[in-house]
Amino acid sequence: MSKKIDTRYAIGRKEANAYNTQELRDAFLVDTLMTQGEVVWIYTHYERFMLGSAVPTTSALTLETIEDQLKMPFFTARREVGVINIGGPGTITVSGTRYHLDNEEALYIGQGNEEVIFESDNASNPAKYYLNSAPAHHAYPCKKIGSTDANILHLGSQETSNKRDIKQLLINTVVDTCQLQMGLTRLHTGSVWNTMPAHQHDRRNEVYFYFDMDSESRVCHFMGEPHETRHIFVANEEAVVSPPWSIHCGVGTGSYAFIWGMAGENLDYDDMDKFPPSQLR
Q: 100 a known binding residue?
Protein backbone atom coordinates (compact mmCIF):
# COMPACT_ATOMS: atom_id res chain seq x y z
CA MET A 1 0.00 0.00 0.00
CA SER A 2 1.17 3.56 -0.72
CA LYS A 3 -0.13 6.89 0.45
CA LYS A 4 0.75 10.22 -1.12
CA ILE A 5 0.54 12.80 1.63
CA ASP A 6 1.34 16.12 0.01
CA THR A 7 2.70 18.16 -2.88
CA ARG A 8 4.93 21.14 -2.22
CA TYR A 9 5.15 23.69 -5.01
CA ALA A 10 8.25 25.83 -5.46
CA ILE A 11 8.15 29.12 -3.55
CA GLY A 12 10.37 32.11 -4.27
CA ARG A 13 12.42 34.00 -1.74
CA LYS A 14 10.31 37.18 -2.01
CA GLU A 15 7.10 35.26 -1.30
CA ALA A 16 8.65 33.45 1.67
CA ASN A 17 9.79 36.74 3.21
CA ALA A 18 6.14 37.75 3.61
CA TYR A 19 5.00 34.50 5.27
CA ASN A 20 3.89 34.35 8.88
CA THR A 21 4.89 31.44 11.12
CA GLN A 22 2.09 29.09 10.10
CA GLU A 23 2.48 29.85 6.40
CA LEU A 24 6.20 29.13 6.67
CA ARG A 25 5.51 25.81 8.40
CA ASP A 26 2.86 24.85 5.86
CA ALA A 27 5.27 25.51 2.99
CA PHE A 28 8.50 23.98 4.27
CA LEU A 29 7.88 21.71 7.30
CA VAL A 30 7.00 18.02 6.85
CA ASP A 31 5.41 16.49 9.96
CA THR A 32 3.69 13.39 8.54
CA LEU A 33 6.60 10.96 8.23
CA MET A 34 7.17 7.61 9.98
CA THR A 35 3.52 6.55 10.03
CA GLN A 36 3.38 2.87 10.99
CA GLY A 37 1.97 0.53 8.37
CA GLU A 38 2.21 3.03 5.50
CA VAL A 39 4.47 4.29 2.76
CA VAL A 40 4.32 8.09 2.85
CA TRP A 41 5.60 10.47 0.16
CA ILE A 42 5.92 14.23 -0.19
CA TYR A 43 6.48 15.40 -3.76
CA THR A 44 8.30 18.72 -4.07
CA HIS A 45 8.81 20.92 -7.11
CA TYR A 46 12.39 21.66 -6.08
CA GLU A 47 14.36 19.46 -8.50
CA ARG A 48 11.26 17.13 -8.48
CA PHE A 49 12.73 15.82 -5.21
CA MET A 50 10.64 13.46 -3.07
CA LEU A 51 10.98 12.58 0.61
CA GLY A 52 9.09 9.90 2.43
CA SER A 53 9.07 6.98 4.81
CA ALA A 54 8.08 3.34 5.11
CA VAL A 55 7.41 1.72 8.49
CA PRO A 56 6.33 -1.91 8.04
CA THR A 57 5.04 -3.69 11.14
CA THR A 58 3.13 -6.98 10.89
CA SER A 59 2.90 -6.82 7.09
CA ALA A 60 5.33 -5.95 4.34
CA LEU A 61 4.92 -2.66 2.45
CA THR A 62 5.32 -2.30 -1.30
CA LEU A 63 6.69 0.73 -3.08
CA GLU A 64 3.97 1.66 -5.56
CA THR A 65 3.80 4.34 -8.22
CA ILE A 66 1.89 7.59 -7.59
CA GLU A 67 -0.44 8.07 -10.51
CA ASP A 68 -1.14 11.79 -10.13
CA GLN A 69 2.53 12.76 -10.01
CA LEU A 70 4.72 10.17 -11.69
CA LYS A 71 2.50 8.93 -14.56
CA MET A 72 4.71 5.83 -14.70
CA PRO A 73 3.85 2.11 -14.44
CA PHE A 74 6.10 1.68 -11.38
CA PHE A 75 7.88 4.02 -8.99
CA THR A 76 11.48 3.66 -10.20
CA ALA A 77 10.68 3.66 -13.93
CA ARG A 78 12.34 7.09 -14.15
CA ARG A 79 13.58 7.53 -10.58
CA GLU A 80 16.29 6.50 -8.13
CA VAL A 81 15.66 6.02 -4.40
CA GLY A 82 17.87 6.31 -1.34
CA VAL A 83 16.92 4.61 1.94
CA ILE A 84 18.38 5.05 5.44
CA ASN A 85 17.03 2.92 8.29
CA ILE A 86 16.68 4.75 11.62
CA GLY A 87 14.73 1.99 13.38
CA GLY A 88 15.06 -1.70 14.13
CA PRO A 89 16.56 -4.19 11.67
CA GLY A 90 14.69 -4.97 8.49
CA THR A 91 14.92 -6.24 4.94
CA ILE A 92 14.27 -4.55 1.60
CA THR A 93 13.68 -6.80 -1.40
CA VAL A 94 14.54 -5.22 -4.75
CA SER A 95 13.77 -7.25 -7.89
CA GLY A 96 14.20 -10.49 -5.98
CA THR A 97 17.40 -9.56 -4.13
CA ARG A 98 17.12 -9.15 -0.35
CA TYR A 99 19.12 -6.46 1.47
CA HIS A 100 19.26 -6.55 5.26
CA LEU A 101 19.56 -3.11 6.88
CA ASP A 102 20.49 -2.48 10.48
CA ASN A 103 20.12 0.88 12.18
CA GLU A 104 21.82 3.72 10.26
CA GLU A 105 22.60 1.54 7.25
CA ALA A 106 21.57 2.65 3.76
CA LEU A 107 20.46 1.24 0.42
CA TYR A 108 20.64 2.79 -3.03
CA ILE A 109 17.88 1.60 -5.40
CA GLY A 110 18.58 2.36 -9.04
CA GLN A 111 16.22 3.19 -11.86
CA GLY A 112 14.18 0.36 -13.39
CA ASN A 113 13.51 -1.89 -10.37
CA GLU A 114 9.81 -2.66 -10.50
CA GLU A 115 9.63 -4.66 -7.25
CA VAL A 116 10.57 -2.96 -3.96
CA ILE A 117 9.26 -4.49 -0.72
CA PHE A 118 9.92 -3.19 2.81
CA GLU A 119 9.87 -5.51 5.85
CA SER A 120 10.76 -5.39 9.54
CA ASP A 121 12.40 -8.20 11.47
CA ASN A 122 10.28 -7.45 14.54
CA ALA A 123 6.92 -5.66 14.45
CA SER A 124 7.40 -4.40 18.02
CA ASN A 125 10.69 -2.77 17.00
CA PRO A 126 10.00 -1.95 13.36
CA ALA A 127 12.45 -0.73 10.78
CA LYS A 128 11.90 2.96 10.05
CA TYR A 129 13.00 3.60 6.50
CA TYR A 130 13.58 7.24 5.58
CA LEU A 131 13.29 7.69 1.82
CA ASN A 132 14.57 10.22 -0.70
CA SER A 133 14.03 10.07 -4.45
CA ALA A 134 15.10 12.08 -7.49
CA PRO A 135 14.61 11.76 -11.25
CA ALA A 136 17.16 9.41 -12.87
CA HIS A 137 18.58 9.30 -16.38
CA HIS A 138 20.62 6.11 -16.02
CA ALA A 139 20.16 2.72 -14.32
CA TYR A 140 22.92 2.31 -11.74
CA PRO A 141 23.18 -0.91 -9.70
CA CYS A 142 21.54 -1.22 -6.31
CA LYS A 143 24.01 -1.12 -3.45
CA LYS A 144 23.85 -1.50 0.31
CA ILE A 145 26.02 0.88 2.32
CA GLY A 146 26.81 -0.73 5.65
CA SER A 147 28.23 0.77 8.81
CA THR A 148 31.82 0.36 7.61
CA ASP A 149 31.22 1.52 4.02
CA ALA A 150 30.40 5.18 4.64
CA ASN A 151 32.88 8.00 4.27
CA ILE A 152 33.04 9.73 7.67
CA LEU A 153 33.98 13.36 8.27
CA HIS A 154 34.79 14.77 11.72
CA LEU A 155 33.99 18.48 11.86
CA GLY A 156 33.53 21.28 14.38
CA SER A 157 34.74 21.55 17.96
CA GLN A 158 33.46 21.61 21.53
CA GLU A 159 34.53 25.26 21.77
CA THR A 160 32.03 26.24 19.08
CA SER A 161 29.36 23.74 20.24
CA ASN A 162 29.27 21.98 16.86
CA LYS A 163 31.50 18.91 17.13
CA ARG A 164 29.88 16.37 14.82
CA ASP A 165 30.40 13.27 12.72
CA ILE A 166 29.08 13.22 9.16
CA LYS A 167 28.40 9.84 7.56
CA GLN A 168 28.46 10.30 3.79
CA LEU A 169 26.37 7.31 2.75
CA LEU A 170 25.04 7.99 -0.75
CA ILE A 171 27.68 10.19 -2.37
CA ASN A 172 29.69 9.63 -5.52
CA THR A 173 32.80 8.38 -3.71
CA VAL A 174 30.74 5.59 -2.14
CA VAL A 175 28.04 4.67 -4.67
CA ASP A 176 27.14 5.64 -8.25
CA THR A 177 23.97 7.75 -8.45
CA CYS A 178 22.44 10.03 -11.05
CA GLN A 179 21.94 13.05 -8.78
CA LEU A 180 20.81 11.83 -5.36
CA GLN A 181 23.07 12.33 -2.33
CA MET A 182 22.32 11.41 1.30
CA GLY A 183 24.11 11.25 4.60
CA LEU A 184 23.67 11.32 8.36
CA THR A 185 25.08 13.83 10.82
CA ARG A 186 25.25 13.19 14.57
CA LEU A 187 26.20 15.82 17.12
CA HIS A 188 28.58 14.94 19.96
CA THR A 189 27.42 15.26 23.57
CA GLY A 190 27.32 18.93 24.52
CA SER A 191 27.27 20.16 20.92
CA VAL A 192 24.03 21.59 19.57
CA TRP A 193 24.83 23.58 16.39
CA ASN A 194 24.76 21.88 13.00
CA THR A 195 25.96 23.03 9.59
CA MET A 196 28.06 26.02 10.54
CA PRO A 197 28.97 28.05 8.61
CA ALA A 198 25.49 28.23 7.17
CA HIS A 199 25.39 27.94 3.40
CA GLN A 200 23.27 27.86 0.28
CA HIS A 201 23.27 25.35 -2.58
CA ASP A 202 22.22 27.50 -5.52
CA ARG A 203 22.57 24.49 -7.82
CA ARG A 204 20.57 22.00 -5.77
CA ASN A 205 17.89 21.66 -3.13
CA GLU A 206 18.32 19.97 0.24
CA VAL A 207 16.05 18.39 2.84
CA TYR A 208 16.88 17.99 6.55
CA PHE A 209 15.19 15.18 8.51
CA TYR A 210 15.69 15.44 12.29
CA PHE A 211 15.48 12.40 14.57
CA ASP A 212 16.71 10.78 17.82
CA MET A 213 15.14 13.58 19.88
CA ASP A 214 13.01 13.22 22.99
CA SER A 215 9.40 14.36 22.86
CA GLU A 216 10.04 17.75 24.49
CA SER A 217 13.18 18.68 22.53
CA ARG A 218 13.17 20.87 19.46
CA VAL A 219 15.63 21.97 16.81
CA CYS A 220 15.39 25.58 15.69
CA HIS A 221 16.07 25.28 11.96
CA PHE A 222 17.20 28.48 10.28
CA MET A 223 16.34 29.16 6.64
CA GLY A 224 15.87 32.06 4.26
CA GLU A 225 18.34 34.35 2.55
CA PRO A 226 21.48 35.21 4.55
CA HIS A 227 20.31 38.79 5.05
CA GLU A 228 16.66 37.83 5.67
CA THR A 229 16.63 34.69 7.84
CA ARG A 230 13.59 32.85 9.14
CA HIS A 231 13.27 29.96 11.58
CA ILE A 232 11.12 26.86 12.10
CA PHE A 233 10.96 24.84 15.33
CA VAL A 234 11.17 21.16 14.40
CA ALA A 235 10.18 18.12 16.51
CA ASN A 236 11.41 14.53 16.38
CA GLU A 237 11.12 12.80 12.98
CA GLU A 238 10.09 15.96 11.16
CA ALA A 239 11.79 17.41 8.09
CA VAL A 240 12.41 20.81 6.54
CA VAL A 241 12.53 21.37 2.77
CA SER A 242 15.33 23.81 1.91
CA PRO A 243 15.03 25.59 -1.47
CA PRO A 244 18.18 26.49 -3.44
CA TRP A 245 17.96 30.15 -2.35
CA SER A 246 17.82 29.30 1.36
CA ILE A 247 20.56 28.86 3.91
CA HIS A 248 20.24 25.93 6.31
CA CYS A 249 21.57 25.42 9.80
CA GLY A 250 20.10 24.69 13.19
CA VAL A 251 20.51 24.52 16.94
CA GLY A 252 18.90 22.01 19.30
CA THR A 253 17.60 22.13 22.86
CA GLY A 254 19.03 18.62 23.39
CA SER A 255 20.82 15.83 21.58
CA TYR A 256 19.73 14.97 18.04
CA ALA A 257 20.84 13.68 14.66
CA PHE A 258 19.68 14.49 11.17
CA ILE A 259 19.72 13.06 7.65
CA TRP A 260 20.47 15.37 4.75
CA GLY A 261 19.41 14.63 1.20
CA MET A 262 20.25 16.58 -1.95
CA ALA A 263 19.68 16.54 -5.69
CA GLY A 264 20.48 18.98 -8.44
CA GLU A 265 23.03 20.20 -10.93
CA ASN A 266 26.09 18.20 -9.86
CA LEU A 267 27.50 15.63 -7.42
CA ASP A 268 30.16 17.89 -5.88
CA TYR A 269 29.54 17.62 -2.13
CA ASP A 270 31.53 20.82 -1.48
CA ASP A 271 29.58 22.91 -4.00
CA MET A 272 28.16 25.39 -1.50
CA ASP A 273 28.18 29.14 -0.87
CA LYS A 274 29.16 29.67 2.78
CA PHE A 275 28.13 32.52 5.05
CA PRO A 276 29.91 33.00 8.39
CA PRO A 277 27.78 34.06 11.37
CA SER A 278 28.93 37.67 10.96
CA GLN A 279 27.11 37.83 7.59
CA LEU A 280 23.76 36.50 8.83
CA ARG A 281 20.88 38.80 9.64
A: no
The CATH number that domain 3-10+19-267 falls under is: 2.60.120.10
The domain ranges of the chain are 3-10+19-267
Tens digit of each residue's pLDDT (9 = 90 or more) over 93-125: 999 999 999 999 999 999 999 999 999 999 999
Are 100 and 146 in contact, with CB atoms under 8 Å apart? Answer: no
pLDDT of 78 higher than 90: yes
Omega of the bond leading into 244 within 30 degrees of 0 (cis): no
Q: Within 13 Å of residue 118, how many CA atoms lie on the same side as its CB? A: 30
The answer on whether 201 is annotated among ligand-binding residues is yes
pLDDT score at 61: 97
Per the DSSP assignment, residues forming a β-bridge with 263 are 205
DSSP letters for 259-276: EEEEEES---TT--EEE-
Stated as kind and residue range, the H or E segment containing 14 is helix 13-17
Is 258:211 a contact under the CB 8 Å cutoff? yes
